[in-house]
Amino acid sequence: MNFAGTFKISTPSDTEIQISRDFAAPRELVFDAFTQPELLKRWLSGPPGWSFVVCEVDLRVGGAYRFVWRGPDGTEMGLGGVHREIARPERVVSTQLYDQDWTGGEAIGTLLLTEKDGVTRSTNTIRYQSKEARDGALASGMDQGMAAGYDRLEELLPALQVEDRS
């Protein structure tokens, strides 16, 4: 079953972007895919031609994470933050700040996972410091990059369900 058509991006307020997508997998597995470096490396690889060169996650309240992607011309894009709230397997709240700070300062991301009949919906709400920052993020093409990443995650989840991950 393919849920690519469930990818939605909206603007619930002047400072927020909300991205949602359904996955045919248990919520615990989707939570792991969003929070464990060895799984993130398998789907959050960035736009075509880019590589995921740094993926560090200290999954605890107050723990930091850092992601760095490298483009075909050597350009790097880094993102990091601190986890403010973790409620496994349903919610993670974290700060996020790009190295180039193209979004006008620190944003707050809230990942919410809900499951019904074996389908997990991820809802990621990002609150920026201003409408201009939100609009800048929207204009960056983030929707296309996130949709491609979520497609890769959907392809990965069936394999994870059969792997021995103990």
TrEMBL record:
InterPro entries registered for this protein in UniProt: ASHA1/2-like_C, START-like_dom_sf
Domain called Activator of Hsp90 ATPase homologue 1/2-like C-terminal: residue spans: 24-157
UniProt xrefs under Pfam families: AHSA1
Family: Belongs to the AHA1 family.
Protein name: SRPBCC family protein
